[in-house]
Design brief:
The complex is a heterodimer of chains A (283) and B (292). In chain A, 76% of the residues lie in helices and 1% in strands. Chain A is an all-alpha fold and 283 residues long. Chain A has a single domain, classed as MetI-like (MetI-like fold, Orthogonal Bundle). Chain A has a two-stranded antiparallel sheet with strand order 1-2. In chain A, helix 3 crosses helix 6 and helix 3 packs antiparallel against helix 8. Chain A is globular and about 70 Å long. In chain B, helix 3 packs across helix 9 and helix 11 runs antiparallel to helix 12. Chain B is globular, with a radius of gyration of 23 Å. Helices cover 75% and strands 1% of the residues of chain B. Chain B has two domains: 36 residues; 240 residues, MetI-like fold. With 292 residues, chain B is mostly helical. In chain B, strand 1 and strand 2 form a beta hairpin. The chains are: A mainly alpha (283), B mainly alpha (292).
Chain lengths: 283, 292
């Protein structure tokens, strides 16, 4: 009986540890929604900041983050998907494949600020792009490339081998098989995995700190070689560099909430698409 | 027929060259970090980096010793790991072995959600909510301490530790557990004496990857650790980590100065440490994980 009692006690302890994490996450999210929701309105979303961000809105930062995300997708998505196709469909066990896998693991572990230094050294200075959308997008693309490759490869692996064999048996070539019989089933999975990486790119601050972000710009960028404002950087500066941090607290909370909504919405969409296709596809 | 063969070849070349960009990027990262850092060896001299004082801007003599930055990163990482491991491992065990199916379907995505919160938002929360709390609880002059940073980092490492540990726990063969039940062990005994020891390599790898994430994290520590470059092992002191140093100072240094090059050395140190952690984790994982 006592051992039964202690068993129950330990279960409750484990439950306690796990739900403590849940409570902390919920507390963070609720705190930001609670304090930020009052600030968000058309003025806040669609106006330029005034008085170093103490008044006005965050429109250019929203646009800037949007541009950066688009740029990052345009670079990382095709590259990552093509890499995954190679690894899943073409690659044989060998030195080259091992090197690629090692490189992907290494990239996945590189700290984001080191990507920032790399982007500064290569894109900003060596290629002379300056601090610009293109430099920032390229840096972010390098950062999320491993996420996209790993997710896409998983999606390709999930397509049953028999689909490939059937197509090959009918005389289709390898590329025809991949294009017509594998990709159509794998693309939803490839995209959802990639969206999670894109959510990360939207929220990252350290790499854009050194390669693109500006705290205040009087107008929107007109080319990919311009600097932009970005939501994470805007929040960082408002929270830590503003001379009157207490006074601009509502603006900080508002920016944090917009960023949180943006990133979580992206993730939620990915999770929903994933479960939708999981239910639909039954092998 | 000929155009078909050509197409096949083209497809293969396109895909293989796309996948070699990963190798290219890794090489370029090393190359460009060293390219910016190397002139430092000759001019102020590499020995300057091993000093115990980081005072890159000074009217008398600048010093670029990265020791206080290393100890800062070290202190924060160790503290964060101490906090994150029990929560991460117990959470993973609870989710995969104890919780009901419905509970699991709620818990897993909810904790994944945590991984999706941008670090600058976590840092902001730490600055506004956690730092005043720490200050009040411990009666400190300032809430911007190593401990504050470590708690936020622990929070950020927990999803990594949970998801990888959970995979490892799930891959323990069912027969192990059945054998344990068959000799009369209770469920709890089976969990802690059979399942967890059998997946210990995966859990170790999970913890190391979590530590890699912690040591490389920038924004949260930059915002809440106070950034004083002093060598200390007290959790209640302000510290300055390697990542925070780069992020805070790179914006203000003249390109090509000694200070600029020293920051690239800090980046190299960081890269080597995370690379090492990653490789060890992979080794641990593939050596013992392959068995399952």
């Amino acid at each position: 009986m006592t051992s039964r009692g202690s068993e129950t006690f330990f279960y409750w302890m484990m439950r306690g540890f796990t739900y403590f994490i849940v409570v902390v996450i919920a507390y963070i999210i609720i705190d930001i929604i609670w304090n930020g929701i009052g600030v968000i309105g058309p003025d806040f979303l669609f106006e330029y900041p005034r008085k170093s961000g103490a008044e006005g809105g965050i429109w250019p930062a929203i646009v800037g983050t949007f541009y950066l995300v688009i740029g990052t997708i345009a670079i990382a998505l095709p590259l990552g998907m093509a890499s995954a196709i190679y690894l899943s469909e073409y690659a044989r066990q060998g030195r080259f494949t091992r090197m690629i896998r090692l490189a992907i693991i290494t990239l996945a572990g590189v700290p984001s600020i080191v990507f920032g230094l790399f982007g500064l050294g290569l894109f900003v200075l060596f290629f002379q792009f300056g601090a610009s959308i293109i430099a920032g997008s390229l840096t972010l693309a390098c950062m999320i490339l491993p996420t996209i490759i790993v997710a896409s490869e998983e999606a390709l692996q999930a397509v049953p081998q028999s689909l490939r064999e059937g197509s090959l048996a009918l005389g289709a070539t390898k590329w025809e098989t991949i294009y017509k019989n594998v990709l159509p089933y794998a693309v939803p999975g490839m995209l959802t995995g990639s969206i999670l990486g894109i959510g990360r790119a939207a929220g990252e601050t350290a790499p854009i700190l050194l390669t693109v972000a500006a705290f205040y710009l009087p107008k929107l960028p007109s080319s990919v070689f311009d600097q932009v404002m970005a939501l994470p950087y805007h929040l960082f500066v408002l929270a830590t560099q503003h001379p009157d941090a207490e006074m601009v607290r509502p603006m900080q909370y508002g920016t944090a909430l917009v960023l949180l909504i943006l990133v979580l919405a992206v993730n939620l969409i990915a999770i929903m698409i994933r479960s939708h296709y999981r239910k639909k596809t039954k092998w | 027929m000929k155009s078909k063969a050509w197409k096949e070849k083209a497809a293969k070349i396109v895909f293989s060259s796309a996948s070699s960009t990963a190798i290219l990027i890794v090489l370029l990262i090393f190359l460009f970090l060293f390219k910016e850092a190397i002139p430092f060896i000759k001019d102020p001299g590499i020995s300057k980096l091993f000093g115990t004082s980081w005072r890159p801007v000074s009217f008398q003599e600048e010093s670029f010793g990265i020791v206080p930055l290393l100890t800062g990163s070290f202190l924060v990482t160790i503290l964060a790991t101490i906090v994150a491991v029990p929560f991460g491992v117990i959470g993973a065990v609870y989710i995969s072995e104890v919780s009901s199916k419905y509970e699991r379907e709620f818990l897993k995505p909810f904790i994944e959600l945590l991984a999706g919160i941008p670090s600058v938002v976590i840092g902001f929360f730490g600055l506004v909510v956690l730092a005043p709390f720490i200050k009040a609880v411990f009666g400190l002059q300032s809430g911007l301490t190593a401990l504050t940073g470590a708690l936020l980092l622990a929070l950020m490492a927990i999803p990594t530790i949970i998801s990888i540990s959970e995979d490892a726990i799930n891959s323990v063969p069912k027969t192990y557990k059945e054998a344990s039940f068959a000799v009369g062990a209770s469920k709890l005994q089976t969990i802690w004496k059979v399942t967890v020891p059998a997946s210990i390599s995966g859990i170790t790898a999970a913890v190391m990857l979590g530590m890699g994430r912690v040591i490389g994290e920038t924004m949260a520590v930059l915002m809440v650790t106070g950034n004083a470059a002093i060598t200390t092992l007290s959790p209640f002191e302000s510290v300055r980590t390697m990542t925070a140093t780069i992020a805070a100072e790179m914006g203000e240094v003249p390109f090509g100065s000694d200070h600029y090059r020293a920051l690239f050395w800090v980046g190299i140190a960081l890269l080597i440490i995370t690379f090492g952690l990653n490789m060890i984790a992979q080794k641990v994982f593939s050596r013992y994980g392959g068995r399952q």
